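Tutorial, part two.
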Amino acid sequence: MNFAAANFKKLLLPIALALLMGGAGAALIWFTNQTLVASNARLKTITDERGQAKGRLARISEEEREVAERIEVYRRLRELNIIGKERRLDWADSIQRIRLSREMLDVRYRIEPQKVLSSIAAKPGKVDFNVSTMTLELALLHEGDLLGFLDDLREAGNAYVSVRRCSVTRARSGAAPIGASILLPRLRAECRIDLITVIDTGAKS
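Running the prediction step on this input gives:
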């Protein structure tokens, strides 16, 4: 028995060291697992943040593209003088100028009071599309006179020209004065035309 007790005392230190090393190993494994879990969590957070950043960047790029497109449309409308209040005097001047340049004998028109065609919500105000409908009567030598007149009216700007309808009929025949060199119109056209202007109520004047 004395021998067994003596041997047991000798084994106490190795057993204690073995237990200590086992505990240290278990602690190391636990710490490693916790570090791995934390690293995976950080990696997931970084990945999510990167994905969100890419999404925000894509939205910003899309918004910038939309803004650029709207600016280009606005610039074109500005060049055509479509933005702003109706320009009845400018329209009258344009019609008179076209009549003279094309040597048209009879041009009559009447412009109805302006009304709102459509309103679109915007920031900070809204965008109103206003329409002034014009009834136009023309004496024509041929159909090309009508097409040329409408093209010139569009090129004159001051409004977006939308032709609702045009009807062309044969004019009443009449005898030209003896010795007259002028050609008498053979056709008459009657058109309903919308002159559309745009007002941004939120824009600074």
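Strands lie at 107-111, 115-121, 126-140, 160-170, 187-200. In part three we will examine how such features are distributed along the chain.
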